[in-house]
Amino acid sequence: RLIARAKAERNDAMVHLRLGFLSLRLGELGGQSHYEDAASEFQWAIDLQPTWPYGWYGMGLAEYGVGDSQISFVTGIKTMLGKDALTRSAMAYAKAAEVDPSFDRGLVDLANTALRQRVNIKLGVALEALRRGAATEAGSHPEVLLARGRVEREVGDGDSALVAFQGYLARGPNRGLALLEVARTLFL
Questions:
Q1: pTM above the 0.85 mark?
Q2: Which residues, other chains included, contact 117 with Cβ-Cβ below 8 Å and sequence gap of 6+?
Q3: Beta-carbon neighbour count of residue 171 at 10 Å?
Q4: Apex CA 87: angle with CA 114 and CA 42, to 5°?
Q5: What's the CA gap between 13 and 41, in Å, rounded?
Q6: Of 63, 124, 54, 127, the residue nearest 89 (C-alpha)
Q7: How far apart are CA 59 and CA 43, in angstroms?
Q8: pLDDT digits over 117-137, tens only?
Q9: What is the Cα–Cα distance from 58 to 13, expressed in whole angstroms?
Q10: What does the DSSP 8-state code read for residue 157?
Q11: How is 91-105 classified by DSSP, letter by letter?
Q12: C-alpha–C-alpha distance, residues 108 and 12, integer Å
């Protein structure tokens, strides 16, 4: 029914977002091709509403789900050129954070994706988005504080990392994790 509705109401971005998230769920359940369906639905939503963060966020999830080629040589070349799944995903998350710096889920996933990358690391993109988001309501969200602390520490700014981890210690649900992150940062 949702597909029929999307065909009838082509200019309704919300229908395409719903269909995209439904396709993501189907992809998680084992239908790898559904990630590509999700990406095309999110692209449609982005084309209709480029200032909504959910289309960009969904695109990041879909790109990560699509993954890379199973042929390691092809994957290596894509990674060197910045066309690998993590890079595509990070760029979509960065765009979600750019259009709405208060979108906390996008900030957290951008930071986590950037920290997982080994080549074409997007730590600068993630750090800029997290710092921009610090002035919004999302900046005080515990998950954002934790992610920001980890990125700040990774780029070598221990003082800023400590401030973020102290914020997580004050607001976050896991005191032990906060103390561990503070200790790791002080050690470095």
A1: no
A2: 86, 87, 90
A3: 13
A4: 110
A5: 9
A6: 63
A7: 7
A8: 755 566 777 888 888 888 888
A9: 13
A10: -
A11: HHHHHHHHH-TT-HH
A12: 28
DSSP state of 140: G
Cα-atom radius of gyration of the chain, to the nearest Å? 18
Label residue 156 left, alpha or beta by phi (over 0 means left) and psi (-120 to 50 means alpha): left
Residue range 68-112, pLDDT digits in tens: 444 454 455 555 555 567 777 778 887 888 888 888 888 888 888
Residues with Cβ within 8 Å of 79's Cβ and at least 6 positions away in sequence, in order, are 68, 87, 119, 120
What is the C-alpha to C-alpha distance for residues 100 and 124, in angstroms, rounded to an integer?
A: 18
Structure tokens at 162: 């400590």
Q: How far apart are CA 47 and CA 168, in angstroms?
A: 36
Tokens of 157: 């700014």
3-state secondary structure 50-68: CCCHHHHHHHHHHHHHHCC
Backbone angles phi, psi at 52, to 5 degrees: -90, 130
Q: Which two tokens stand for residue 57?
A: 């966020």
Closest CA to 144 of 160, 124, 164, 128: 164
